[in-house]
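Troubleshooting: if your tokenizer reports a length mismatch, compare your output against this known-good record of 177 residues.
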Amino acid sequence: MSDNFSRKQLLLAALALSLSSLVSPLAAAPPVEAPILIEADRAELDQGQRQSVYVGNVRVTQGAAVFTGDRVVLNHTASGKPQQVEVTGNPAHFSQPADPAHPAMEAKALTMRYQSELDRLELTDEAWVRQGSDEVSGKHLIYDRRNQRILANSEEGGEDRVHITIQPHSSSESAAP
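Known-good structure output:
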């Protein structure tokens, strides 16, 4: 076994350990204890910049939540805790299946940025979110999980508009208990 190969294995192990406290964005988040699995063609950790970069067919999984994209940049706090995740792709994707309390959720955009302290997912360029059977699309979407709000914007002065589809719910779903 070459020394260079051993260094790569150690670097990948260090990256995996540094990600172990990442909290999954969006509703129905998996337990914080769930391991984070990252697959990529290439990975780089810059401890001085507190940043790790994954390039090439990247897949980040925690529990049932999955991000996929061409590139993932993970910024860490001084203690090594993940602070912001940026996923770019053509497009980047996020998916999470339904659970008893929340409908399934899918999202895609050219750029996705999750900020753990704010518990907020920002989608830019060709942004689209579907939760259950409802959909929102626009140039720029912000999903504020903490406050259960979505802010959707179109390009200022552009022809693109925000599009929202809200499916009717059955009367049994909306009836008071």
